[in-house]
Amino acid sequence: xxxxxxxxxxxxxxxxxxxxxxxxxxxxxxxxxxxxxxxxxxxxxxxxxxxxxxxxxxxxxxxxxxxxxxxx
Length: 72
Fold this sequence. Notes:
The strands form two sheets. The chain has a two-stranded parallel ribbon. The protein has helices spanning 18-35, 46-49; strands at residues 6-10, 38-42, 55-59, 62-67. By secondary structure, the protein is an alpha+beta fold. Strand 1 (6-10), helix 1 and strand 2 (38-42) form a beta-alpha-beta unit. The model has no long low-confidence stretch (mean pLDDT 93). The radius of gyration is 13 Å and the shape is globular. It contains two helices and four strands.
């Protein structure tokens, strides 16, 4: 429970306003940088997805596309 290597998030910002979403993403990025945590996030929000280091698009259990968002 403490100091995990991987954190899974199913729509971690799904019900948040844009300011709080930004704050949550900043915390995740900081924990990744400072502690080496890997975050695997499921989201339907392209803004959230495109703020990550890697995006994997899936449909019906199949990988459609894998890419690094622009600016990363």
